[in-house]
Design goal:
Elements (H helix, E strand, L loop, with lengths): L8 H11 L4 E5 L2 E4 H17 L7 E5 L4 H12 L3 E4 L6 H11 L3 E5 L3 H7 L7 E5 L7 H9 L14 E3 H7 L17 E7 L7 E6 H12 L12 E4 L6 H6 L9 E4 L5 H11 L3 E4 L1 H8 L14 E4 L6 H11 L3 E7 L4 E5 L10 E5 L3 E6 L13 E7 L10 H7 E4 L2 E12 L4 E7 L3 E4 L2 E4 H9 L4 E11 L3 E10 L8 H8 L11 E4 L13 H13 L1
Parallel strand pairs: 1-11, 3-4, 3-5, 5-6, 6-7, 10-11, 10-12, 12-13, 13-14, 25-26
Antiparallel strand pairs: 1-2, 8-9, 14-15, 15-16, 16-21, 17-18, 18-20, 19-20, 20-21, 22-23, 24-25
């Protein structure tokens, strides 16, 4: 029986644990966890969740960094038929409160360093249970001891109470407990998780992903490297965050095929290099900015990364220069892919058994169907011509959570089939390779994240001194695009600086959405009907760059 034959995520993992009980499933901060151990820990945590009132269909937020804790929590949520809501650990209370209310989450697993944020939003949300984890919770006692002794493990102040629990203590208390039988009525079309994605709106949009969709997409993407090595031999250096679809389908999914996943709570390149060298990692996953950072690291020459066979880049278009330098350095290409949260990751991926053209993001994977259309009429464009990419699949997402207007704008029905409008302009050549051309919406790609220009503009305009703002992405070879804001102040306001406005943004915006540059203007370009003309601002930036 293979993972493809299962209709839920936990059953697919349990099958691998049955086949490879003593094989390493996860390496976290130098400690290995076998499939048997991960299954045992997730069963204990599932029992704890169930005993504390978390039932099938209820939402559980995962507000923790990449770690063994994350994997255990996510699998436990799947085991009791609940719904995981993973979010980035750098979210502010503003974001946490919004997502908790939008998703209807009733429990949260948070890091101790985020505990203060969680407690601050409890009165305004439906969160009833808080489970606090520490970075070293699952590590051997001696690592925890020396970590705290030498103050190298970040710690946050926590206060346990009636509805606030310690992650580690729960695992200890439920050592001998068994998990109640799974809901017999569960089907593959049940929601497994809700991922939140940015875009053109002020607030992130919840994308419900079913078990069927996740299994079909993730297993397809994780086995793309099969011509290079068997799936169960794969050891993945998982630098992509697990709350992101890239980290899930191209890293986490290896646990559904018998591979091994190396996790770090945050990217540390020396630790990454050491883990690759020591554990013989065959795969590395990351965004273009990470590959540039690796190539420019001053101690790269001190490590042997020769075990790497499959290097995959997603989240943004890989600069040709980075791909060329990587091949010259390591003798292997960086394989690209293109996808979105709404498509459960990869729509296109570069095959590994033959060379892909420069600048291509690969060919369409088997589970997806595409159309390239005129954005205005939705009519298919002639072969080779650029147009908006539409995507469809058997188990596709068909709506956003609680967002009827955004759903109507992003999901259309053509010829009796539902299609997702990516808002990206692509072209396809005669051999079936796709190429990214442009974006039709006002999103900024920074370090692989999709950042809403309008969200930043709204935040700036909430400052009492600001009357108008315009935010655009400025091309940057290191991070894709940097965020630049053009701001108009009220006439009677004096002495407001860019630093003050950036400080204002930090109160509500997560760090990767903070503007890098602020330029003050007397007015902003607008159409005859008063619509902001971002294109004119972008064109102006292009002219500056060429001057």
């Amino acid at each position: 029986m293979t993972a493809e034959t299962h209709n839920n995520i936990y059953a697919a993992f349990a099958e691998m644990a049955r086949r490879h009980p003593d094989k390493s499933a996860v390496y976290y901060l130098g400690t290995g966890f076998s499939y048997r151990k991960i299954q045992e820990l997730s069963a204990r945590f599932a029992a704890a969740l169930s005993d504390n009132g978390i039932k099938a269909g209820q939402k559980v937020m995962l507000y923790i960094p990449n770690s063994a804790h994350w994997v255990v929590s996510w699998l436990a949520v799947q085991q009791i038929d609940a719904v995981a809501v993973p979010i980035t650990p750098i979210y502010t209370p503003h974001d946490v409160s919004y997502i908790a209310n939008d998703s209807g989450a009733e429990a949260v697993v948070c890091a101790d360093t985020n505990f203060g944020y969680v407690t601050s939003v409890l009165p305004d949300t439906g969160l009833k249970k808080v489970i606090v984890s520490k970075m070293a919770d699952l590590l051997p006692w001696w690592k925890r001891f020396f970590g705290f002794l030498f103050d190298i493990i970040p710690r946050g102040k926590i206060a346990l109470g009636h509805d606030t629990f310690s992650f580690r203590k729960l695992l200890s208390q439920y050592r001998d407990h068994s998990v109640p039988a799974a809901n017999n009525g569960r089907k593959g079309d049940s929601i497994a998780e809700i991922l939140y994605t940015g875009g053109t709106t002020k607030f992130p949009k919840g994308v419900p992903i079913t078990h069927n969709l996740f299994l079909a997409s993730a297993l397809e993407q994780i086995t793309m490297s099969n011509p290079l090595f068997a799936p169960e031999e794969n050891v993945i250096m998982g630098n992509a965050p697990l709350f992101h679809i890239l980290g899930q389908t191209c890293s986490l999914a290896t646990l559904l095929t018998g591979g091994c996943l190396i996790l770090q709570p945050r990217i540390n390149l020396d630790a990454t290099f050491d883990a690759i060298q020591r554990l013989g990692a065959k795969t590395i996953i990351g965004v273009p900015a990470m590959y540039r950072m690796i190539l420019e690291h001053e101690r790269l020459h001190q490590y042997d990364l020769g075990s790497l066979q499959y290097c995959f880049s997603g989240g943004d278009v890989l600069p040709v220069e980075i791909g060329k330098r990587w091949r010259e350095k390591f003798g292997r290409p960086i394989y690209q892919g293109y996808g979105a949260t709404e498509t459960c990751g990869g729509v296109t991926m570069c095959p590994v058994d033959h060379e892909s053209p420069p600048k291509s993001v690969g060919r369409v994977v088997k589970s997806k169907k595409i159309r390239i259309v005129n954005p205005a009429s939705l009519e298919t464009v002639p072969p080779g011509e650029p147009g908006e990419l539409l995507v469809s699949s058997n188990y596709m997402v068909s709506s956003y959570l609680n967002k009827p207007e955004e759903t109507a704008a992003s999901f259309v029905e053509l010829d009796g089939k539902k299609w997702y409008r990516t808002a990206d302009i692509m072209s396809i050549d005669e051999d079936g390779y796709l190429y990214f051309v442009d974006r039709t919406v006002d999103t900024i790609k920074h370090k692989g994240y999709r950042v809403s220009a309008s969200e930043i503009e709204t935040t700036l305009q909430e400052h009492p001194a600001v009357i108008a703002s315009c935010v655009v992405g400025v091309p940057d070879e290191k991070v894709g695009e940097r965020i630049k804001a053009y701001v108009v102040l009220k006439e009677d306001i004096k002495g407001i600086t860019g630093y003050e406005l950036i400080k204002w943004c930090r109160k509500t915006l997560v760090s990767y959405k903070i503007p890098h540059y602020i330029e003050f203007r007397d007015m902003l370009p607008k159409s005859k009907v008063g619509k902001l003309l971002r294109r004119e601002i972008r064109d102006e930036e292009e002219r500056r760059k060429e001057a």
